[in-house]
Amino acid sequence: MKGLNNKRVFITGAASGIGRATAERFYAEGSELVLVDMPTLEQSELSALFPNKMTYISGDVTKAETLDAIKAEMAKGVDVLINNAGITKDATLLKMTDDQWDAVIAVNLTSIFKLSKAAAEVMKAAGKGGSIIHAASVVAHYGNFGQTNYSATKAGVIAMAKTMAKELGKDKIRVNAVAPGFIATPMVKKMPEKVLAMMEEKASLRRLGEPADIAAAYAFLASDDASYITGTCLNVDGGTILG
Length: 243
Fold this sequence. Notes:
Family: Belongs to the short-chain dehydrogenases/reductases (SDR) family.
InterPro entries: KR_dom, NAD(P)-bd_dom_sf, Sc_DH/Rdtase_CS, SDR_fam
Domain Ketoreductase: 7-186
Structural class: alpha/beta
Pfam families: adh_short_C2
Helix content: 40-55%
Protein name: 3-oxoacyl-ACP reductase
Largest sheet: 7 strands, parallel
């Protein structure tokens, strides 16, 4: 991809699954990585995978100390922010607790607001522009049983991307979202075969996506190849949204 070499790229939720695949893709493109995730056994693996040009911030993106650590790194420069971190706390509406609602909102919406604001401030001051990308989901478009909280946050980040794009365009900062479908992450692969088959059936391409598919979308939107794309949501779902 054009323009990713030596770019300083921040990726949240980077230790496994889509986040890790994204780190691998940007590292291969020559980017300098700042990876953020909860304390994890994969941390040592990541250091081995990315021996050069990688900083790891271990912490919870809803906590002030983690946000302060990220902002301190952003002060050194930030070209790309990928708000990939997200959680689920599923329950039907009548069984969902306030704690389940608040936890998902905190990670999937509030942390994105805070990190995007911090990155945009640094990007604007530097005067070189930049790219901010939010992780949405196909459930933002059609909802999902037992996911009132999650669906709301994913629809919210699409709206946030569009609004931020309008506000930050004059500063050459592009803001977009990526909406994955059913992706074969380690967690998904552990699901029963019957459930996996159902997921594959929903996609027009009749297969699950791979983490690398989402990483490729992030890389494209962050690159100079997408220099005239902002305020959009790129669906990477194998046609799941087509119904």
